Structures are given as C-alpha cells and as structure tokens.
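Hey L., structure's done. Input below.
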Amino acid sequence: MFPKKGKEFPKSIKRISSDEFAKSISTALREELGSSHIAAKTVMRWTGASERTAKNWLAGTCGPSGCHLILLARESDVIMATLLVLAGRELNISALSLISLKAGLMYAVNAIDEAIDSSA
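Output:
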C-alpha cells in the first residue's frame, strides 16, 4: 500500500473506441457522398486508397489511418466537423462554418460582378 499523499489524478478523458471512430467517419462520409459506388470512387480519388479500403470506410468496418484521415478532412467539411466533435472541439465547428460561408459568399459576389461586367 502506498501512503496517501499528494494530489488526486486528473479525471480521465472520455476515450473513443475504434468501432465508434469507424462508425463516425462512415456516417460522415455517407452523409456527404451517399453509399453508392460513386461514393467509393470519390473517396479513392481524395485519398489514393484502394476500392476495398474505401468501401470499408463507408461501411464503418474500419476507419482511416492518420494520413488518409487528413486527406479526407482536406476535402470534406463534414469529416472535419466530425473530427472536431470526436476531439471535443465543438466550438471550432462554428469557425469552420464561417470560413466555408465566407468562401461561398466571395464566390457568389465574384459571379455577380462578372455577370454585371459582361452585360455592361
């Protein structure tokens, strides 16, 4: 027995299982891409992964490794938001949404400007 001295250990962090991670990524991918053959091809194009691997991610039987996860998050705002939720960083989602909204608005403003310029 150790003598009872010192401070208490910090409360443990909520851990996620591999299955929970795989299911979360699967849900996010299917939300954005659907579950068709085209979805698997899109995931393959985004990451360079094999067709079997992409289908496993879509089915939720396994999740992507670090490098593939980064490539997915680079292409998909839904994956990025899912990662932030899993990491307990929900507050960062609103910042991500604002950046995406700003980019969309800038694209729309440029399209309007081009339309006005071409009609003048």
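Residues 45 and 54 are 10 Å apart (CA to CA). Helices lie at 18-33, 37-47, 51-59, 66-75, 77-86, 91-119.

-- N.
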